[in-house]
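[job 4417] fold queue: 2 targets
>>> target A
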Amino acid sequence: MEQIVQIFKALGDETRLKILIILSRRRICAKGIAKHLDISEAAVSQHIKVLKEAGIIVGEKVGYYVHYDLQEPMLLEIVKFIEQMNNDYTMSNCKFGIHMPDECRASCKANKNKCCQRNGN
């Protein structure tokens, strides 16, 4: 779960999302990314560092440059995680280690405003 949290944190920045969009279309170096986004290479470097630490991208040295590419298996893990959340209607058996009671009354004594409901109701 910690890896998934790190990935979502990395994805929580507009510039990093733009970098991923660029990388979804081609392998490219930091200088190329900087030109496409009209930001400094230093800024790109910081964003790349976050994306690499999260395991979302990988770099390969080609001559004097490092070309970056998406780590598709890691992105597929995020897709799988989101699909699991979408498909997991029995939250009491949640695979993410979070116990949710079947009845709201079990955790919300007031229950006057029906503060929690199952999805789909």
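>>> target B
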Amino acid sequence: MKFRFKPRNRRYTVLIVPEGSNPVFRFKFRSTLLLSVLISSITLITLVLVLFVVNRSHSYRIHTLESELFASTTQYQSTVDDKEQAIDNLLKELVELSEKSKNIESKMIELEKLEAELKSITGSGQLQSKLDTTTTPSEDIIGGIGGESIPLSDEEITTLVKETKESIVTSLSDLPDLQQKLEDTKATVQQYKEMMQILPTYWPTDSVRVTSQFGKRKDPFSGVLSLHSGLDIGGQIGDPIYAAADGKVIDTGYSSARGNYVTLSHPSGLLTNYMHLSKVTVSKDTEMKQGEQLGELGSTGRSTGPHLHLEVVKNGVTIDPELYLKVPGEDEGL
């Protein structure tokens, strides 16, 4: 025996009874329709919930992406700004480096001129030309500066880099030779300085007033033409008298012609005599340094007034002291 199950399709009636005397509304439907409506409603609600959850997730993801995009954009803009600032700084440093390289070239030229001047000093005892004291614009700006700011083109930047590189390479390649030249010249100058200390080059008095030069003159006492064997420098009694060069005191004393006197012997082989002193402040065999005091100016012996009579003796013969003496301040302005 076989049984067949048939779902019941019951009928339902829904009455809507309004207030008053309005007619009653009747809605008739079967159970299958109610079931379909319930299933559809549940499905729709589920779909709405799923869509809401998905939309919420997508909204959060979009918000996260927008935040990340904003942060990336900000970071990118900051990076771009930093790069531009770095490029500007590099350009400024390049310009400064270019100016410094020009200054290095200028200084090297000055050093070369200085080296030549030092050689001329040691060679002739006097300067042959003046140093070029022209300074670069950056070292001697008077007043303000201004003008329109025009960025350098790529071509100008490339040229500037090339010129700066060539200038620095040239300066660095020339520097060792110049340094060696200066070292050689320094040694020569040191030798020259030592030589000048043993030659009677130091002016022996505070006064520079020459009252009688070396050579032929009328004798101040007899009026007869005679040879003046030294240089007379006027001054005040008691003025200090200085050694014209390094040396050793080999004689001091007094005579009717010389008055109080001091004689120095110098490593160069020369002798110097200091006469008519009012006072001698050194003794025989004293080692003297150039510029040290050895007595005081006076008018003793055969003298018409306060002065120093200085003699330079070479191989037993007196020669003109002005061949050696350097007048204080004579090189100022060179």
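[job 4417] complete. Note on B: Residues 31-124 form the longest helix (94 residues).
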